[in-house]
Amino acid sequence: MWSIKGLTKPLHHYQLFGAGWMLHRELHPDGPFGGILADSVGLGKTIEALACILGNRRPDEEKSDTKLGTLIVVPPNLLAQWQDETDVCCPDLRVTRYHSSKHNRVRMSDLLRADIVLTSYYEVMKAYPNKDKLKEWRDLPEAERSEKFEQALGWLFGIEWHRVILDEAHCIKNSRTHTFNACSQLRGKYRWAMTATPVHNGLQEVYPYAKFLRESNAESFKDVKHKNPVRRTEAKQQMQKWLDEVMMIRHIQTLFMGKALFKIPKTNPLPNIWIKLSEEEFFIYRYYHTYENMTPEEKKACKLSFLVLAIRLRQAVTHPFLLFLMMRDLFELEDVQLIRRELEQIRLRHPDRPFIEQIGSWGFISGTVTHATSESQSRPRNRRDKDWNADMPGNDYKEYQPMGDEEGGRFLEECDKNVNLALTPSAKTTVVKNLILDWQRDHPDDKIIVFTQWVLLGRILGRVLQQEGINFLYYFGEMSREEKEDNVKVFHNVPDVKVMVASLKCGGQGLNLTCANRVILIDPWWNSALEHQAYGRVFRMGQPKETYFVRLLTKKTIDGRMAKLQHKKLIEIKEMIKPYDTTQRNPKFREVVELFGRVECDKNGKMVAVVDDYDSDDEDTPVNVPNGLGRMGMGLRRGGRVAVGNGEGSNAAADGREDDIDELLDMPRELGPGDSRVGGYGIQDL
Q1: Please, what is the angle between helix 455-467 and helix 427-442, to 10°?
Q2: Percentage of the chain modeled with pLDDT above 90
């Protein structure tokens, strides 16, 4: 382990290497002055970034009202985690959060003194003119248009930042979004995109990173999807060379100096659980599927797109309660009557299995499309409302429940009203319940995270857990930042809270939830990247237990197509994200190792040790470390020598491997063992 001046936590060798690579990029004479830090989930990108900040700070004498330190942009739910990590690791750095709202606004004097300013993507977007404004000004004279644009920019865009860091940078992967437009215009000399999953859907997502990093050739990257094969090939070649230069990727199975990065209890790859829908569910699914086969003109007439239909089909295989809005807006009276008759026939064949008996209460359809007013509109949304019902079915350990789209929860509300009516099960919720009960029986001290994409399904699961007497918490996007942060703390610290029901989009990114070691993923996502992010909440450095991951898929439904879609995207990404020999453009491995100290070699010229080459008793003594690392104040403190290939902190092979998670997903790995990369180098080969 290595100690850094100003950093209270020691760095693993590979983390020091990563911080040194970041400094090399910043101090490189040619741009871009930054890059993409794409280390796998849990390897410590945050502490590597903090070490880089310490190694290349903006001197106080260079600061002014318009020239400040480092701006770090994160999803809102990660602000507290970044603040806590920075306060613990870098107590000497002045850190503040930027909020534009009046009740959270910080003093300008605090912002001007800060070494690090933390803010959210939402604040960045809010401070940048949206498309409607730009369209409104489009026909104005150029001078007037520029003046209005400058006046509309928020405070964040008036600062020349020493460094801009985007955490969870895949938030900008779509170049057509307001998020990308705003973040790409932030001013800063050194620019970093940090994400464990930089590319989710295809190579077109590399372009936003290139624009953010001020790559002069970025526009040519758009040709990776060009119809002309020659232009497409040239664009891919240029993109690959650029990625090899500016992106670092390392995975948990990566070897550093011949050893694993760190030891973590093994992960137990459970196979995908393929579930057969009940007869009732499959009938409803097939009925919806007939709408999928309509022509585009027919769908347009029904005000329904292919994307919406795909979403509805995904909901249909999860729980029928999720289909209220489609039934209300699309089905005609004869559709509902047909479904009722068929379900009644199924019920007669299986009298011991009642299903959706409350279908008779669907009084919202009359003739063709009728928009009904849900009685749930009068119900308070959450406990912040004065009339909040603390006894509502499905409330969590803290008497909270997200409401989502209340109109879409009509079926659930009807079920709640009838105390004699059992909660309608689905094949997936039944399997989830049985998994949780089995795990809690056999491993009562283990905690479980259940990821779903639908708030309504989370509420249904809340009722299931409540009926079984299992304490749980919610974690969904509609919760306030304070509520999310508090729920994470309670989940960590209260042993009796066994389950967290979380949104895949909100709870599946950035959070450290190593207090749990079991994960259930109910719904497959459009790509595997977000699923990897979700598994990474527990399979990461600091996990003391063996981990278990399971994904639920339904047979003969859209779930199988989703898995194939993920596979197709991974193949394209794998072809690009792989080692590429750019030794003429990247630092030699020895040059980077020399960032750690003086290199000793044997008689054959092979590196055998790295020796810290300054007086560790005097922290203020100038350090003579090549390539500017010590010059920028990043002092290494470690007694004696470190043997190359046998370093402390990497003395055991890792039992857990990221390809175990890929095996879970039943698809090829994104990168092979030789694909981990610093620049164009496979680390285990160096």
Answers
A1: 50
A2: 29
pLDDT number for residue 294:
57
Position with higher pLDDT, 299 vs 2: 2
- Each residue's pLDDT tens digit, 75-118: 988 898 899 999 999 999 999 999 887 666 677 788 888 999 99
B/e letters for 332-348, b = 16+ CB within 10 Å, e = fewer, are: eeeebeebeeebeebbe
What is the structure's pLDDT at 462? 94
For 309-323, the three-class secondary structure string (H helix, E strand, C coil) is: HHHHHHHHCCCHHHH
Q: What is the pLDDT of residues 305-359, one digit of tens each?
A: 666 777 888 888 888 888 777 777 666 667 777 777 777 777 777 666 544 443 3
Structure letter (DSSP) for residue 294: S
Q: Are 116 and 218 contained in the same domain? A: yes
- Domain carrying residue 349: 278-316+319-522
The reply to whether 111 falls in a domain is yes
Cα–Cα nearest to 123, from 154, 81, 83 = 154
Which of 522, 541, 572 is at the close of a domain?
522
* Counted domains in the chain: 3
User: Radius of gyration over alpha carbons of the chain, in Å?
Assistant: 27
Q: What pLDDT digit, counting tens, does each position of 181-198 carry?
A: 999 999 999 999 999 888
Which residue in 543, 472, 547 sits closest to 514, CA to CA? 543
- Strands 598-601 and 607-611 come out as antiparallel
Say how far apart CA 28 and CA 183 lie, in whole Å. 23
Alpha-carbon distances, residue 199 vs 45, 376, 557 (angstroms): 17, 40, 27
Smallest CA-to-CA distance from 513 within 566, 549, 567 is with 549
Rounded to an integer, what distance in angstroms lies between the CA atom of residue 253 and that of residue 259?
A: 10
Return the structure tokens found at 57. Answer: 């700070």
Residue 604: inside a domain: yes
pLDDT band for 208, please (50, 70, 90 cuts): very high
Distance CA 87, CA 108 (A): 20
Q: Can you tell me the distance from the alpha carbon of 86 to that of 586, in angstroms, rounded to the nearest whole number? A: 30
* Kind of pairing between the strands at 547-554 and 518-521: parallel
Q: Verify that 252 and 186 share a domain, yes or no.
A: yes
- Give 30 or 307, the one with higher predicted confidence: 30
Averaged over 633-650, what is the pLDDT? 35
Structure tokens at 530: 């977000």
3-state class (DSSP) for residue 514: coil
Answer yes or no: do 208 and 344 share one domain.
Answer: no
Interatomic CA distance for residues 269 and 271, integer angstroms:
6
Q: Is the pTM of this model over 0.70?
A: no
Distance CA 486, CA 488 (A): 5
Please give the DSSP secondary-structure letter assigned to residue 261: S
| CA–CA dist 165, 183 (Å, integer) | 10
Nearest-angstrom CA–CA distance, 674 and 677: 8
CA distance 477 to 502: 9
Measuring CA to CA, which residue among 117, 118, 115, 62 is closest to residue 92? 115
CB 254 within 8 A of CB 261: yes
For 647, phi and psi rounded to 5 degrees?
Answer: -80, 150
Instruction: Return the DSSP state at 656.
Output: -
Final residue of a structural domain among 467, 501, 522: 522
* Preceding amide of 425 cis, omega within 30: no
- Give the rounded distance of the alpha carbon of 574 from its chain centre: 19
Phi/psi zone of residue 524: left (φ > 0), alpha (ψ -120 to 50 degrees), beta? beta
Please give the sequence-ordered ranges of beta strands (E in DSSP) within 381-530, or none if there are none. Answer: 448-452, 472-475, 499-503, 518-521
Q: Do both 121 and 62 map to the same domain?
A: yes
